[in-house]
Amino acid sequence: MSIGHGAGGSLTQELIDLIKGSFDGSPLADDEDCAILPGGFAVTIDGYTVSPLSFEGGDIGKLSICGSVNDLSVRGAKPLYLALGVIAEEGFPVRELLRYMESAASVCRSLGIELVTGDSKVVPGGQADGLFLSTCCLGRMERETPLGADNLRPGDAVIVTCPPGLHGATIAAHRYGLKVRGLSSDCAALWPMLKNILPVDGLRCMRDCTRGGLATVLCEWSEKARLGIEIDESLIPWDEAALSVCDILGFEPLHMAGEGCAAVAVEGEEAQRTLALLKEHDLGEKASIIGRVTREHPGLVGIRTYSGGTRLVDRPVGELLPRIC
Amino acid sequence: MQALRPGDSRERIELLSKALHKLADRPIKVMEVCGTHTVSIFRQGLRALLPENCSLVSGPGCPVCVTSQGEIDAALSLAERENTIIATYGDMLRVPGTGTTLAEERSRGADVRVVTSADQALSLALNDRTRSVVFLAVGFETTAPATASVVLDAWREGLHNFMVLGLHKSVPPALGTLASDTDMDLDAFLLPGHVSVITGLAAYRFLPERWEIACAVAGFEAEGIMTALVEVARQIRIKRPRVASLYSRAVRPEGNGAARDVMDRVFTLGDAPWRGLGVIPSSGYFLKKEFARFDAVERLGVTVKEVPPPAGCRCGDVLKGLIDPPSCDLFGRSCTPVHPVGPCMVSTEGSCAAYYRFQKRGCPAWKD
Amino acid sequence: MCLAIPHKVIALKGANRALSLAGPVEVEIRTDLVPQIEVGDMVLVHAGFAIEKLLEEETEELEKLWEEIRELAGP
Prior knowledge:
The complex is a heterotrimer. By secondary structure, chain A is an alpha+beta fold. Chain A has eight helices and 15 strands. Chain A is globular and about 55 Å long. Chain B is an alpha/beta fold. The two termini of chain B are 29 Å apart.
């Protein structure tokens, strides 16, 4: 197993496929962000291993709630209950742990989520990089017709709700010793914003752009729906600071993780209305229509560049590595 | 400079494309020899804007890609050493040696650290004198001066735990090898922007003078690259090949003397193996004898053997511009970015990786 | 082969280092290769080392080329 297998790109997909291969397939495991269960419930689980534990815009506690909440929200499920797993290294300061728990609790309070059960373990030093958290979130479907990539049709509009890659850029800046003014993670719970667009009839699907970035989401949609997607570089609401970090380290901004950034696909005619609804919420201030779904080049995502040329959008392979070449 | 910014307006680039269409009245073959150009051209989707007559070939522009199999294996052999930190640029981490990669060695417990500067590699040695640090010094003239600077630092500090595996190569001799190859039949070179910052322009004069090859030093933004293509197309049309610089914001005709001085102080040129091009005389930068104690080859007995590339791998032919990546039988089949066979597919600047990532199965066209 | 981007020098640190800004990113760089470096200079930075000062404008050569480009591109 290599670090690359955890990075959210092609290697991760390979790993997931291997793991699923051990289990008998369930029709409920449809490769979306959360699973929809009989009776209208939805459930998701996520592990949080971020380093550093605290960063501009949040910490591991806040992240652990937002991540799972967002997995539910993007399928139209209202988050209700939370189960939390804590794995801490021997010697980890309790006061620090409680700070992160307070961050997590604060997000739960703001959304009316109840922590109903949990587990904690302490492992020998060096085995958990300080602290690992795992959250399982249960919610209730608030949209009758299910959302998913299968709904996509040619002519659908693709919207991104905020600048892509802010979280990834913030973490990369820490890791490689860059001090960046005005850069902070977009870590946020998306339910309060996304719930406002659930009533839109022509809403097709939504995904939060985490590991692997916006590129991975679009590539997965395109492959699942067997349709093409075309986006325009000049329409994406880039963040200057995140782009500068990518320039310096040689990263592709479309591969950088967000933690409060959603991609939304909606029927072409309802695009403007959906955009307006998103923009009514603070989190959607920079929401933009960036492209559309097309019949052309099924399974491939194309981008029209600033220079008017075109190229494919690809997924990251594994670990994002800074380069000098 | 690799980033795409609204400074390059679509209108200006459209003008450049039109001009290029008019100038390329016969088939011309332009080779770019800088991995950063390879990537910029692909990322900015510029190939879609070129006329049919203008064939743009990728050459040996990626220093990781031209590092020979034997040199890569030598770097990987360091992973077996006790108490050793291998400091490397990220570019090298996934390059396949014979049987393993640095990333795999790291997951097996080797202490491999990704650095973004030679200075960071030196710091590792300064901060822990009980461990040996070996810095994998890959790159062309743009990167070699930094290595030379930290070797001098280590020498001044009297460090005993810092070493360099010197794999730096020099670009102009490789261009000579390509120019003299009649199979190649090159009309022009897009010269590397940042290598030229160090070397200056004189190093390339032999190309138009001896081989009648049109040359233009290009920057990395879309407009800069397209302008350089127009310039070489123009030189070919009027039959006046020369070395033009379209990147004079950064490239001085005389290059960077201070950088070349520090390289001369620390390195000596010698014959070096290039993947695909064979051994090229005076094309490798090696540490001078007086710095032998910072040389991993001298101190640690690391040897660079002649190792054949993996079976079926045609990175060598791709690097010469003889074939385009999709023409290799392994491309997209047993050789992909996820499971690369050769360095051209794994290096972020490798031609095969660029083709695969940005252009496999044809470039989607935008329809308004 | 050489990722290098423009940085603005905001402070000198000792004989061979400086603090620079690339957009909003603050980085410490080595200045050994550009000995005449000064605060306020725009420099090209590659792998943590400044490799050259950037000039303000492109030259006459480029402007002349553009005249020809416009003519060629034509109406």
